Fold this sequence. Notes:
Number of strands: 5
Radius of gyration: 43 Å
InterPro entries: HATPase_C_sf, HATPase_dom, Sensor_HK_TwoCompSys, Sig_transdc_His_kin_sub3_dim/P
Shape: rod-shaped
Largest sheet: 5 strands, mixed
Low-confidence stretches: 1-13, 276-281
Mean pLDDT: 78
Helix content: 55-70%
GO molecular function, one term: kinase activity
Strand content: 5-15%
Number of helices: 11
Pfam families: HATPase_c, HisKA_3
EC number: 2.7.13.3
Order of helices and strands: HHHHHHHHHEHEEHEE
Organism: Streptomyces physcomitrii
Amino acid sequence: MDKERSTGAWAVPEYRWLLPSAVTRELDPDRGERSPRRTLRDWLVDFTLFFVAVGLGLSAADAMPQEENLPHALGVADQLLGALSCGAVWLRRRWPVGLAVVMLPVALVSNTSGGALIVAFFSLAVHRPFKYVAAICGSYLATLPVFFLVRPDPELPYLAAIVLTVALVSAVVGWGMFVRSRRQLMMSLRDRARRAETEAELRAEQAQRLAREAIAREMHDVLAHRLTLLSVHAGAMEFRPDAPAAEIGRAAGVIRESAHEALQDLREIIGVLRAGEGEDSGRPQPTLAALGALVAESREAGTEVALDYRVDETGGVPASLGRTAYRIVQEGLTNARKHAPGAPVGVRVAGAPGEGLTVEVRNPAPPGEVPAVPGSGQGLIGIAERAHLAGGTITHGEDPHGGFTVSARLPWAGGNA
C-alpha cells in the first residue's frame, strides 16, 4: 500500500512530487481553495514546455531572413513579442483561458510566438472544458488562411502550410484533452475508492453496533437470571433475620452458587469478546436440552415450577430454535422470581416439526408483599426481539387476577407446514 502523510485516510501521498499540482489539490481537501504549490513534476513539465516554446520561436526567427519584403521593424517587433510570449508561458496554469485569448492576436503578427501559442493551446485543453478549446482554437484556425496570405511560409506552399498547422494544432489539442480525460478518470477512481472505503467503514461500524447489541442482550439474558436469585435470597435474609439456621444456610448456598455461575457466565461473555475467528469462546450455548437443568435450578432456589414438556424431538430441535425457547423460559422464570416471589410458575413447551413451537410461562398473583427489585423491562424487549428474529411472535402481560403470562409462538420448519 502506498505510504501517505497521516492527515487523514485520504491524505496526499508522500510521492506527491510525481503528481500534478491540480491532482494534489483534489487529494488534499484541507487546503480548501488555496492554490497548490508546484510539485517537482510541475516544474519539469513547465521548464520542458518553456524550452519547447523557446525552441520553436528560435526556429521561426532563423527562418525570418528568408521572408521577402519583411520590414525590419516588423521583424524586431516579431521577436520581441515572441520573447514576451515565451515568458508568459509560466502563467499557463493560473490563467489558461486568458493566456490563450491573448495569444490569438499576438500570433497574427508574430511568427516567433507560435511555440508559445502551441503551449497555450495545450494548457487550455488540459485545464478547461472542451467548449473553451473549441471556441479559441476554432477562432485561430479560421484566421490561418489570412495569416499565410500576409506572411507566406518561405519553405512550404500555401495549402501545405495551412494543412500542417491545422494538423499540429489538432495533435496538440488532442494530446491535451487526453491528459485531461486521463486525469479526470484517475480522480474518478480515487473518488470511487474513497466512497467505497467510507461505505466499508460504515458497514464495519454497523456490524460492531449490532455485535454490541447482541452481546448486551446475551449479558442481560445470562446474568439477570443469576443476579435475580442473588437479589431475592439476599432480600429474604434481610427481611427474615430470625429464620431457621437451615433455611439461612440454604439461601446462602443458593447465593454462593448463583454468584459462582454469574462469574462463570461473565467469563464466557468476555471470552466471546476476546476470541478470534475459529477460536472456542466458552461453553456451548444452551438449548432445549438444558431446560430441565434451568427448571431444577429454579426449584432449588425455592420457586415452585411445574414443567409441561411436550416436544417431538424425533428430527431434533434446531439449535437456534432451542436457544430462543430457552431464553424465553429463562426470562419468564427470572421475572416471576422478581415480581411474584413465592408464587408457583407453570412452564409449558410444546411443538413438533411443521407445527411450530409454543412456549408459555405463567404465574398467578404473588401471595404476599413483593420486595422492591429494580427492573427496566429490557428482558422482555430482548426476548421479543429474539422471537422476531426467529420469525415468531410473542405476547406478555397481566391477566385480570393479577398474574402474568409470557407466551411465544416460534416457527419450526418441517412436515407439511
